[in-house]
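Pipeline run #58 for the internal structure catalog. This entry was flagged by the ingest filter as a single-chain record with no existing model, so it goes straight to prediction. Upstream metadata was stripped on purpose; only the residue string is passed forward. Reviewer on rotation: M.T. Logging verbosity set to normal.
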Amino acid sequence: MGYRNFAGAVLAAGLLLTSTGCGGGGDPAPPDLEVKGFVVNNMPPSFTNVVAFSVMDGGVPVTDATVTVQIGAGAPTTIPHVGGGTYTSGGFSISSGDDVMVQVVNSGATVTVGATVQMPEPPTVTNPTGGSTQDSDADIAVVWNAMSFVPVYVQLLVSGTYTRSSTEWTTIVGVTPPAYIPAATLLAGTSDVELQVVSVNHETNLGAQAEGTSYLQVGEFADLVVFNTQP
């Protein structure tokens, strides 16, 4: 699963920033845009660090906006539309204390939101252990370390390559382990099942053009856990 597919999965799961623009000065009033987005670090080896934003206007995907992202002292980067109002690109890096600024230009008006981020600590998964064999017909406990900086939540993901439904399995859980992969979710007799665990934090103060419910979410992946399931 490339970063574009991963971006869509996490946006659908709820990693978001929501913004409605407000007019001001002599400029055109910014359109009412819902902008959902996330920035994630430490992606598994087959991925790349990614930013993704979904732009909607009254529930309708905006496919012709210009979306520009600047992280810290990095250069502003325009990220491409990849379908369904989602704009995404890889190759970004983010650290605690970085400013993340997002500018959306649409219909001759501009909406700009941003925040200084606090990155969560990446979880260290202690169960299942790498190379272990798990019974896919029973619940599989997922356990991680207590983190010194507590995130908002932890998310688990397994690609559809390894599930009985052939669709990605994902769940958002609290920050206190364990969480469980339900019985009969994973294929039996499968080698090298890849479990992804990400801790997620968010910022709520995004400036004057953001609604009070708006937030920017940032995530840190644990090291990829690869295990097997019994025949």
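catalog note: Confidence is low (pLDDT under 50) at residues 1-30.
catalog note: Residues 125-199+222-229 form a domain with the Immunoglobulin-like fold (CATH 2.60.40).
status: ready for reviewer M.T.
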